[in-house]
Amino acid sequence: MIKGAIATIHLDTLRVDFDPAFKFRCVDGCSKCCTELDIILRDEDIIRIEELGYSTWEFVDYDKMFYRGDKFVGYALKKRPFDDACPFLDENGKCKIYAHRPLACKLYPFLLVKHGNVIDVYVRDTDCPGINDPEGTPVNYAFVMEYFKEVVEEYRRKMGYVGGHFHGQKT
Q1: Which of 6, 58, 111, 141 could staple 124 via S-S, CB 3.0–4.6 A?
Q2: How many domains does the chain have?
Q3: What averages of pLDDT result for each successive group of 10 residues across the chain (171 residues)?
């Protein structure tokens, strides 16, 4: 059982404090997140996928909407009718749009919680097979750059930090 934050991202300095004992690796062919989750599509996600040549009618479930309080957050990613999986999951268990996948897919299996000037990183699905995989990596600066960059840059931009972009290597 994982209790508490496994990492803390300091938005002002971009320092990442992390538990070196915790490791994660997306396990090839697992596809658990592609078959079991309801994925929220933000406007940015929809535009990014449309730019790949897909029609919104192919991947947006306009009947399922997500709200945070009374604020509309986005629509759901449509599920395939024959197996309830993501429409972008190929026959080999790989994502056809991996580099352009929705933010909710990028964040899985983590939950990011911002308070003040920090973002705490928690594990939201302890059944994910990539959790504490021996070949995994800790949630250090390099990991944050790969998986959480979009969220961190958005918060930094909103908070008035220089351009919101990562600068240099932090640990």
Answers
A1: 111
A2: 1
A3: 84 95 88 89 96 96 93 94 94 90 92 94 91 93 92 92 54 45
